[in-house]
Amino acid sequence: MGKSLAEINQLTSKEISEWMAYDLIEPIGSKRTDLQFAHINMRLSAIIEPQKEHYLRDFLPDINEIGFELFATREQRQERETKKAMEVWNKLSMFFEGSDNGYNQ
User: Fold this and answer.
1) Is residue 60 within 8 Å of 38, Cβ to Cβ?
2) How far apart are CA 97 and CA 105, in angstroms?
3) How far apart are CA 40 and CA 57, in angstroms?
4) E strand or H helix at 21
5) pLDDT by residue (tens digit) across 42-100?
6) How far apart are CA 62 and CA 3, in angstroms?
7) What is the DSSP letter of 52?
8) CA 69, CA 34: separation in Å to the nearest integer?
9) How far, in Å, are 6, 35, 55, 71 from residue 45 at the CA level?
10) Has this prediction a pTM greater than 0.70?
């Protein structure tokens, strides 16, 4: 961003939204560096192993947990949260439907 912390603290919500939108189009900071190195590694791998298909996602940092949040789209994050919620719901349903827990009497 090229701004000091004091300048960032002075930004309006509109300016912050604009920077967030810009970051979606042109990643700022480590996300961009990760993408650049992944691209370089993908190209080098294609030279070393031309018979194999290479995908950029295979060269990005581990997308699980923390890394996932850096590179996931809003839809992917929502899908992940929905999946987690369904897993919790299914576990709770199994617990309350069980015969030995005392809750289904």
Assistant:
1) yes
2) 10
3) 12
4) helix 13-25
5) 999 999 999 999 888 888 876 555 555 666 677 887 888 888 888 888 888 877 776 45
6) 30
7) S
8) 14
9) 43, 15, 10, 22
10) no
- Rounded CA-CA distance 8/28 in Å is 15
Write b or e for each residue in 78-102: b if 16 or more Cβ atoms lie within 10 A of its Cβ, otherwise e.
Answer: eeeeeeeeeeeeeeeeeeeeeeeee
Q: And the tokens for 12?
A: 């309006």
Rounded Cα–Cα distance for residues 94 and 52 (Å): 44
Degrees, nearest 5: CA angle 78-81-85? 135
Write the pLDDT tens digit of every residue in 14-30.
888 888 888 777 767 77
**How many residues in total does the chain contain?**
105
Short-list 79, 80, 34, CA closest to 57: 34
User: Which residue in 53, 52, 58 sits closest to 38, CA to CA?
Assistant: 58
55: closest CA among 45, 47, 69? 45
